[in-house]
Amino acid sequence: MINNLNIMIPEIFLSLSIFSVLMIGVFIKQSFNLIFNLTSIIIVITVAIILSGPNNEEKIFLDSFTRDAFSNYFKILILLSSLFVLNASKSFIIDNKLDKFEYPIIILLSILGMFFMVSSNDLILFYLGLELQSLSLYILASIDRDNLRSTESGIKYFVLSALSSGLLLYGCSLLYGFTGSTNFDLISDQLNKDNTGAVFAMVFILVGLAFKVSAVPFHMWTPDVYEGAPTSITSYFAVVPKVAGLALLIKFMFIPFSNILLEWQTIIIFISLASMILGAVAAMVQKNFKRLLAYSSIGHIGYALAGVATGVVNGYQSSIVYISIYVIMNIGAFSCLYLLKKNGQYKEDISDLSGISKKHPLLSISLLIILFSLAGVPPLGGFFAKFYVFLAVVEQKMYVLAIIGLLTTVMSAFYYLKIVKTIYFDDNVISYEPAKNKTAQISIFASCAFLVTFFLYPSILNNLVISLFSS
Asked: What's the rounded Cα separation, in Å, for the pair 184 and 117?
């Protein structure tokens, strides 16, 4: 039993840490800074625990919980992206009076839910992890109780997410009924194209998962929640849950649904195409930077799903590379928003970027690099993310998906270049306060440095991801 629990050391440590910092928050007044710093330390220690542990596949609790290279990679990505998002937004949190001790604790709870999601090998454990994450995100979306927009975004996210969770749970119950098991491996053995009921259940599960990653046509909550929630929460929504959601999609396609490839492939192709097209078209008319990034994220999920749609290991690997680079680009983009501060107010309209290159050259060049990378301009990191996905798609002779993907990439370049034009060629409207948010500056520098230098050794990330499926 003790040996079994060794597999769960990261989850056990995280759970005990959450209980401990919660008690500190209850008994020590004005403890936000202390708990925030402890949260960062907990995340770093958890990363160290995962890195120091083995990568070989092990299963416990009747094979319902798995530790392997795949789950370890996504857990580290979740932790590191959470660490950067949290620390870059600290000044914003304090300035907007969101510095409640519960804030970082809820972040930790959502991370714990994601851990169970990516390690799950059973429908029940998967759903428990998903709901722990979702409940935490409901609270985060409406944490600014005095702001009507934040409250509205929280309610919208709660209602629509509850609906998608209901559909997903219905799909899980149908899948159990038609296969006689909740274990992914046993479901894979029982699932085939002749099992019509199980294929029907798969559709409901895909609907729920598509909602979690905000893929079209289940994206309707994304723009409103991104715009209405505080920027610190929006940056978390845009990055971390996407990682866990894509990990789950790949895991479902790779294990329980591997024998019904043709049945789910058509659905994923449609969702991918719809996400790429809507993300490119809808973002063109946006005036709010956060809302634009919301539609941008919908489009990027479409590209990531194109890799999943291939149904082969090479395609899954390209999607993992894509989401990894997407995370870095979005951390940099949102960190730039934390530097747009004037008279104690944070600006988020695209017009507020007018002519800032004249007085804020470093911020402007950083935004230029990040936006060009999001557009897929070579030789930046975002280009290689798209290159690996389209290469996997073309290798499977899915030419229509590749062509439409390339066309939407060109279309999306329009609104990214439009922002660059606003930054460099419009008349200066606002001069922002000197940047004091050092952690946001570090995040921007790290993001830009990665994106600019990635072309020197682009296969490093690809080689790492290949090892996830060879163990």
From this structure: 13
